[in-house]
Amino acid sequence: MANIMNSKNSFNNWLNKFLDKLDQEKQENVEKIWTEAKRTDESQKVSVSEEEKDKVFATIASQTGIDTDTKDKDDEPKPTKIRTLNWRWIAAAATIIIAAGLSYLAIPVQYSASYGEIATVTLPDQSTVTLNSGSSITYNRLFNLIDREVSLEGEAYFEVENRNLPFIVHTSNATVKVLGTSFNIRSWKDSPVPETSVLLTEGSLAFYPTEKPDKSVILEPSQKSSLKNIDGIPEQPFDVSKDKTLAWMNNQFAFENVPLIQIIREIERRFDLNIQVEPKEVLFDTLTIYYNNKVDAEQIVQDICQSKALKYRKINGGFIIENKR
Amino acid sequence: MDSISDKQFSEWARSIQSGDDIAFKDMFDATFENYVRYAWRFTKNKDSAMDIVQESFIKLWQKRSNLDPSKSLKTYLYRIVKNNSLNYLRDTRQHTTQMEDVQIADDSSIVFEEDQKSELLEPLKKWIDELPDRQQEAFKLSRYEGLSHDEIAEIMDISARTVNNHIVAALNNLQERYKSYKDVSGKHYE
């Protein structure tokens, strides 16, 4: 009975009174039910993001004539903010990290997809971004008001709504500028040199080195271009089959002439695994690998080993790839 | 929402009554998700639950001058959300029964996925859902929302004494079912 009595005395006086009238067995049953009942609450699975909250409040404000510009100012005296967070949900979904605080506007919004997961984010302008495992995007809180700029680390597929403001994606070395269109960008931090590649699926876009906007190339649908290094220029756009570039969105796995190291990193991200490759000399060999259907990590590792005459063994949480004796 | 004190709510009530939109935004930020969960219990659909709570806050702001700071703002908003949810159910059931069935099935399939499953959880949930309406409402407001009997009394528009009776009856009811459940499953192991 202890755990019940310890919580909020006044609230549970009635419960103790009720329990006192019961025999031992019934008391235990009721206590168990009382404790467990709280866990049957399905609504705890429902959670609301800061973004959704902001959107709803914006609607409320517009319908009641409240001026939202005056909100969230640091110098306004106001009661301490109380936020209620569902930690279980946060841990489970692990897709949203939102920093909110006093310098609300100064802190950018970031969304990321953790390893083993693909996440879709709707931006304030209703554009959507599908993030490949281990990727993240960042934008400032005035997104859609003064600009539409996001920063990407990793790989993502964008479906951009047509608006007056241009939609701009920054990577470590390149910039993609569009009005309304759909495209895929890949720009992993762990590639040997800063590298960004873009595939356009719909509309049109401009792709240029961040430092040199005049070196831009214009892509047409089903064309791809990439840009290496900080001071490089984009490669001439060429036609490709978009299925392979977008394979990740369907949980497929496809790479064409890509260094082994990048394929390994992608397996690690997509399947949330750790893979060690002992023979370092093979890491920069390029490989073409394509699975039509959903594939598991071990199958890919096995096929890589076969093509490179290597062998692998399973370890806890991953694989070790090594030379054949 | 248990973490928000009654004092905080009455401060909000006083500020909102005098037209303080910053207090209104604060209260919104602190309570929105809780009220959405409450509305979700009726609609089983997050979007409509958010719409309902949005409408409820609009109503709260529009009627702010009628607020009575001596009464609980927390339960006042619960009542608005409850009424709006019931209206929503009434309006949609007539037109889109099929649609809703689909949504309920979708939502319920994610339930308990990540919880450590206790064998009692599923049957207990079923028993709670099978309690008589009023017992069920009182019990859920007490356990799920963490509300006091006085607060529940205001939301259900009955006396605190009756709330107590409902919850005690619910517990007796659940206890009986648990007891026979244990007896039956006990026999399985013999």
List keywords for this structure.
heterodimer; A: 325 residues; alpha+beta; 14-stranded mixed beta sheet; three-stranded mixed beta sheet; 25% helix; flat; disordered N terminus; B: 190 residues; mainly alpha; 9 helices
Tell me briefly what this model is:
The complex is a heterodimer of chains A (325) and B (190). Chain A has helices at residues 2-6, 9-20, 24-37, 50-64, 87-93, 242-245, 260-271, 297-308; strands at residues 96-97, 109-112, 119-122, 128-131, 136-139, 148-159, 167-170, 174-178, 182-187, 195-202, 205-209, 217-219, 223-228, 238-239, 253-259, 274-277, 286-291, 310-315, 318-323. Chain A is of the alpha+beta class and 325 residues long.
Write up what this structure looks like.
The complex is a heterodimer of chains A (325) and B (190). By secondary structure, chain A is an alpha+beta fold. Chain A contains eight helices and 19 strands. In chain A, strands 1, 2, 3, 4, 5, 6, 7, 8, 9, 10, 11, 12, 13 and 14 form a 14-stranded mixed β-sheet that branches. Chain B has nine helices and no strands. In chain B, helix 3 packs across helix 4 and helix 4 crosses helix 8. The longest helix of chain B has 30 residues. Chain B is elongated, with a radius of gyration of 19 Å. Classes of the chains: A alpha+beta (325), B mainly alpha (190). At the A-B interface, helix 2, helix 3 and helix 4 of A face helix 1, helix 2, helix 3, helix 6 and helix 7 of B.
Number of helices of chain A: 8
Q: For the record, give the distance between the C-alpha atoms at the N and C termini of chain A, rounded to a whole number.
A: 65 Å
Strand content of chain B: under 5%
Determine the N-to-C terminus distance of chain B.
Answer: 45 Å
Shape of chain A: flat
Q: Major β-sheet of chain A, in short? A: 14 strands, mixed
Based on CA inertia axes, which overall geometry of chain B fits?
elongated
Detail the poorly predicted runs of chain B.
96-117
| Structural class computed from helices and strand pairing of chain A | alpha+beta
SSE pattern of chain A = HHHHHEEEEEEEEEEEEEEHEHEEHEE
Percent in strands of chain A: 25-35%
Q: Helix content range of the residues of chain B, please?
A: over 70%
Rg of chain B over CA atoms, rounded to whole Å, is 19 Å
> What's the Cα radius of gyration of chain A?
26 Å
Spans where pLDDT lies below 50 across 5 or more residues of chain A:
1-11, 71-83
Contiguous helical run count of chain B: 9
Oligomer: heterodimer
Mean pLDDT of chain A, rounded to whole units?
A: 82
